[in-house]
Specification:
The structure holds four protein chains of four kinds. In chain B, the strands form two sheets. Chain B has a six-stranded mixed β-sheet, sandwiched between helices. A four-stranded antiparallel β-sheet of chain B has the order 2-1-4-5, with helices on one face. By secondary structure, chain B is of the alpha/beta class. Chain B is 36% helix and 26% strand. Chain B is globular, with a radius of gyration of 18 Å. Chain C is mainly alpha-helical. Chain C contains 13 helices and two strands; from the N terminus they run H-H-H-E-E-H-H-H-H-H-H-H-H-H-H. Chain D contains ten helices and ten strands. Chain D folds into two domains: 115 residues, 3-Layer(aba) Sandwich (D-Maltodextrin-Binding Protein, domain 2); 126 residues, D-Maltodextrin-Binding Protein, domain 2 (3-Layer(aba) Sandwich). By secondary structure, chain D is an alpha/beta fold. In chain D, strand 1, helix 2 and strand 2 form a beta-alpha-beta unit. In chain D, strands 1, 2, 3, 4, 5, 6, 7, 8, 9 and 10 form a ten-stranded mixed β-sheet that branches. The chains are: A mainly alpha, B alpha/beta, C mainly alpha, D alpha/beta. Chains in contact: A-B, A-C, A-D, C-D. The interface between A and D is large, with 45 and 46 residues.
């Protein structure tokens, strides 16, 4: 009898953990949406800021965030995935691999402002890309690189060795085995990594502070070399530099809601793809 | 009755890092015959069979001396690509390992990977292989279902069909029925005797009765050495070496 | 021959990404070491006063380190039970339908940008804590711990849930076969088997909390003093770096001191990761699972 | 694998959409305090001159000056005068930073509206910030612990307040160091026992400005230097301003420009 009592109380605690997590999620989304929706209008979404950031819309910032996030994932995904594939499939197991894995996990702990300064020193100044979408995307790419590598590695390690051997035993080359068998099976895990890193890249403020984000530019970015407004920096700047807090706090709420919605959209798409992949493979 | 030698092992030694798994193995595998390899667990029989299609190369720190020839050519020559060897020497593993794909894709995978793209040819090949593997009747109308939904016995026959689709000349069975029920095991054994006409078969097994029923030749391994090799009737009725006799009569192992 | 080319391509890309990541470490060391010509390491780490712009300037970062320790410890108290607890609930109790809804929801929590968390903490949590504990200000270590912990929950939960799913079903069936109920199976068989994945999840969630800059800057209060309770304002290392880096003259002593803080933070997380890795490896070997 | 390649090609298309076209462009970067002025002025200036493209960046006085020295920006905003170390670096880089004062900023001491205290002497302010006075009762106010709010020690606003009001002495170590004017203002407005200081522009109805040495902080008292805690805001240029940078600074110094400065809550130079 006592055994079941422990089980029921154990399961109840787990249920409580789940509930508190969801309540907090609900609280954040509720507050942001209620206060954000007051400001949202078609004009808010399609026009630039006016009257010293107290009126008008945040269109350039929205576009900026989309470019920066996609640029970051475009840069980090191939590089990170290739690194994970090399570490799991090609490189000899042993000390070097563990050391590299250790280094990568560790970089997730480096304060994001350091990535910003690294981006400033390397991409903006050394490579001469200047403060631009390119520098910002590359810097954000490096911020999410460790996340993509770790998640992809976990996914690749989880692919059972037996189906690798099955493929090899049919005369498939190593690359054919990776491309046709290992990657599709590991895709759901890799997509989890992408989802987490999309949220991280879109929401980072410090890395783009010195490398891409402008407080105010007229019109839309002309090329990947022009700087760009970005939602996270816009929210931070409004909340800290704005001299008209009453109007600007409302705009900050609106921008937070749009940023939240934008990130949820991209993540939902990735989650949908992962679900579809899972169903196909049973 | 002795036909041509398909695979010949001469003076083969195999090392995992520092420990020696196989000592001075000399063995002939005859074409279109079933050769069974028996012995207690850890005697090196699985290690030996995985040498024949160079699967052991995947493990780090392994080393091999001596010569293994397929149709006369040494399979470890530098110019020989392991991929070609594995195409000609198929393998069915102890635990069925179908790909997490549909039944059709499982079979067609091997064909496509070896560069064949003609759709109708692939479809015919898939049907022929499934028929040869005695699975066609059970799956003909649900080829797009996921292979993971099949039973253990069906999955193992699917793996066999996969090898047939790649036109392997030799099929290695690494304790194929270890995780199967008696009915599926019987089906697999029937299938092996059927396949003997077109393929050379090597089967590693714990099950003495299975070896006696299915194989033409039997090799007895102990502690990494080949103790005795000969026709299956001779080995089971009049073993020359005392250790073989003890093992067969179940006194140890 | 083609195989060699593929292996070469992947090796080049792998080392390119490693080169970028090592680049960060190199910049960290290059910009941080000059401070130690002026201030001895012992003074720097254990100094109790952080007055970088006065003359004579005092570069003591003990208050900043202790603040980071308190806030990170607080975040762990929040994110481990919530994160791992939710992952276990999802794995063990939630039906397929429930799972299909809750798992994406949790991942959405992961994609909420950190600046929105900071915003939420600043505008809603701060007044709430201020009234609840009758504090002079709601900006304190507890506020930062709650927000950071909450931010780390989705990372911990997603990766822990993936780890639990990789545990083979045969383990569960074997445990049921000997008459263990679901809770015993979960605690004595499944969690240990998924140990390495769960510890990686916690490490990554923790690293996110330690490295977080913007949120901490907005909600932790910013008092560079060694905290005694959770209800005092604190100034974690990342907050000090983010707040002061923009204003400090580039290449000046203060600029190098801030980089030194980042370097020490990096070394602390490095040591922490090694310890965590050893624990999880010994944990795995005890269970007979490969590394 | 197919899915991933489709996502990547889609992203490439959107990135390629942008159409490059050229107009004279300057970059204004630096102090967060000067940011609102620079932004408003840039917006109005660009409305008047369609050919001009001015982009405004924050980051802080240190970043602004450093970018000017590195040549990655045309105008470096700063709420403090350039430091010797920065000047040396400029000289080695062959740059000669020239200070253009574009506005004055009075630093107001603020308290919670409910606080009965309305005036403080500079000495009292110094005693509060250095920790000798720690309860409002000692100043005739309500019996409440004083919560000292300050700016992090590298900000330009703190630099001026530290020099002018505290004569360089150290702020008590348990003071709440906020990262921006607005953070100070919002913390003071929500904390009954708080005292803080912000630029004139950030004083709003939610806080109460306190007279310093019996002088009220207004535009006139700051300009006439009667108000003791005031400081200039700079736009540094490399040598004499020229081209679009000159036109922009001249516009800010014009009567229309100074009106914008006042709208943002700072003190015009007229």
């Amino acid at each position: 009898m006592k055994k079941n009592l422990i089980q029921d109380s154990g399961f109840f605690i787990l249920f409580l953990c789940m509930l508190t997590t969801l309540i907090f999620l609900g609280l954040i989304i509720y507050f942001i949406s209620v206060r954000g929706l007051k400001v949202i209008s078609w004009e808010f979404l399609t026009q630039g800021p006016r009257m010293g950031m107290t009126q008008g819309g945040i269109a350039p910032a929205i576009l900026g965030t989309v470019y920066l996030t996609l640029g970051a994932v475009l840069f980090a995904l191939p590089l990170g995935l290739a690194c994970a594939i090399y570490l799991c499939e090609y490189s000899p197991k042993g000390f070097t691999v563990n050391l590299i894995k250790m280094g990568i996990n560790n970089l997730a702990g480096v304060p994001s402002v350091v990535f910003g300064l690294f981006g400033l020193a390397v991409f903006v100044k050394f490579f001469g890309f200047g403060v631009s979408i390119l520098s910002g995307s590359l810097t954000l790419g490096i911020v999410i690189l460790p996340l993509i590598i770790s998640a992809s590695q976990e996914a690749l390690l989880a692919v059972p060795q037996s189906i690798r051997e099955a493929s090899l035993s049919l005369g498939a080359t190593k690359w054919a085995t990776i491309k046709n068998i290992v990657l599709p099976t590991a895709l759901p895990g890799i997509l989890t990594g992408i989802i987490l890193s999309i949220g991280r890249a879109a929401g980072e403020t410090a890395p783009i502070l010195f490398t891409a984000a402008a407080f105010y530019t007229r019109g839309y970015p002309r090329s990947i070399f022009s700087e760009v407004m970005a939602l996270p920096y816009h929210i931070y700047a409004l909340m800290t530099e704005g001299t008209h807090p009453d109007q600007q706090t409302a705009i900050a709420y609106g921008s937070s809601l749009i940023l939240l919605f934008l990130v949820l959209l991209i993540s939902a798409a990735a989650i949908f793809i992962r679900q579809r992949q899972k169903n196909i493979h049973g | 009755m002795d036909s041509k030698v398909k695979i010949k092992a001469e003076g083969v030694n195999f090392f995992y890092a520092r420990s020696q798994a196989l000592k001075d193995i000399n063995l002939d595998i005859y074409e279109n015959q079933v050769t069974a390899i028996i012995g207690p667990s850890g005697c090196g029989k699985s290690t030996f069979i995985r040498l024949l299609n160079r699967m052991n190369e995947l493990l780090p720190h392994t080393n091999i001396t001596g010569r293994i020839s397929l149709d006369g050519r040494d399979i470890f020559e530098d110019s020989v690509d392991a991929v070609q060897i594995r195409k000609r020497v198929g393998m069915v593993f102890q635990k069925p390992n179908p790909f997490p794909k549909s039944i059709f894709e499982n079979i067609s995978y091997g064909i496509k990977v070896n560069g064949i793209k003609d759709k109708t040819f692939i479809e015919e090949k898939v049907e022929a292989s499934l028929k040869k593997a005695a699975l066609w009747q059970e799956v003909r109308d649900r080829l797009s279902d996921s292979a993971l939904k099949l039973s253990g016995g069906q999955q193992q026959r699917l793996c066999i069909a996969r090898c047939l689709a790649v036109e392997s000349e030799v099929i290695l069975f690494d304790e194929p029925c270890a995780s199967l029920d008696p009915i599926s095991t019987a089906k697999i054994e029937e299938l092996i005797t059927e396949l003997k006409k077109d393929y050379t078969i090597v089967i590693v097994t714990h099950n003495m009765q299975q070896a006696a029923r299915v194989s033409d030749y039997t090799a007895f391994f102990l502690m990494g050495e080949l103790i005795e090799f000969g026709r299956t009737q001779d080995i089971f009725t009049a073993p020359k070496d005392k250790r073989t006799e003890d093992y067969i009569t179940g006194r140890f192992g | 021959m083609k195989e060699k080319i593929y292996k070469g391509i992947f090796a080049v890309l792998a080392f390119a990404s490693l080169a970028f990541l090592m680049g960060i470490v190199i910049v960290l060391f290059k910009e941080a070491l000059p401070i130690f010509q002026k201030v001895k390491i012992g003074e720097f780490i254990f100094g109790r006063y952080w007055y970088p712009t006065y003359s004579p300037a005092e570069f003591g970062i003990l208050p900043l380190i202790m603040a980071s320790v308190w806030v990170t410890f607080g975040a762990v108290l929040v994110c481990v039970p919530l994160g791992v607890g939710s992952a276990l609930y999802l794995h063990e109790l939630a039906g397929d339908k429930q799972r299909a809804i809750i798992k994406p929801l949790i991942e959405i929590l992961a994609s909420i940008p950190s600046v929105v968390y900071g915003f939420f903490g600043m505008v809603i949590l701060t007044p709430f804590l201020q009234d609840l504990f009758h504090l002079p200000t709601g900006l304190c270590a507890l506020n930062a711990s709650l927000v950071l912990g909450l931010m780390a929950v989705p990372t911990v939960c997603s990766l822990a849930d993936d780890a639990l799913n990789y545990v083979p079903k045969s383990f569960r069936e074997a445990s049921f076969a000997v008459g263990a109920n679901r809770w015993q199976t979960l605690t004595q068989v499944i969690i240990p088997a998924a140990g390495s994945g769960i510890s990686t999840a916690i490490i990554l969630g923790m690293s996110r909390a330690i490295g977080e800059t913007m949120t901490v800057l907005m909600v932790s209060g910013g008092a560079a003093v060694i905290p005694h309770t959770f209800l005092e304002p604190v100034r974690p290392m990342t907050a000090a770096i983010a707040a002061e880096m923009g204003e400090a003259p580039m290449g000046g002593l203060h600029y190098h001191a801030l980089f030194a803080i980042a370097l020490i933070l990096f070394l602390i997380t490095f040591v922490f990761n090694i310890v965590a890795e050893m624990i999880s490896r010994r944990f795995r070997i005890k269970l007979g699972l490969s590394g | 694998m197919k899915v991933l390649s489709r996502v990547l090609t889609l992203a490439l298309v959107t990135l390629g959409l942008t159409i490059p076209c050229y107009a004279e462009k300057i970059v204004v970067e630096g102090s967060t305090t000067v940011l609102p002025i620079a932004q408003k002025a840039a917006e109005v200036f660009m409305n008047n001159n369609s050919g001009a493209d001015i982009s405004v960046r924050g980051g802080g006085s240190g970043v602004g000056i450093a970018s000017l020295i590195d040549g990655t920006c045309d105008i470096g905003n700063s709420s403090r005068s350039i430091k010797d170390s920065e000047l040396d670096k400029a000289v080695t880089n062959g740059r000669s930073p020239k200070a253009n004062v574009i506005a004055m900023d009075g630093i107001c001491v603020i308290v919670h509206p409910a606080n009965s205290i309305g005036a403080l002497t500079k000495k009292q302010i110094k005693d509060i910030y250095t920790g000798t006075i720690s309860n409002w009762k000692q100043l005739g106010g309500p019996d409440e612990k004083i919560v000292v709010i300050s700016r992090d020690s590298s900000s330009g606003t703190f630099e001026a307040f530290g020099a002018l009001a505290l004569d360089g002495s150290k702020v008590r170590s348990d003071a709440l160091l906020q990262a921006s004017n607005q953070a100070v203002a919002s913390t003071v407005s929500r904390t009954p026992g708080a005292i803080g200081y912000v630029g004139l522009g950030y004083v709003s109805s939610s806080v109460k400005a306190v007279d310093v040495d019996a002088v009220k902080a207004t535009k006139e008292t700051v300009l006439s230097n009667k108000y003791p805690i005031g400081r200039p805001l700079f736009m540094y240029t490399n040598g004499e301003p020229k081209g679009l940078a000159k036109q922009f600074i001249d516009f800010i110094l014009s009567s229309e420009g100074q009106k914008l400065v006042e709208e943002e809550g700072f003190v015009g130079l007229k």
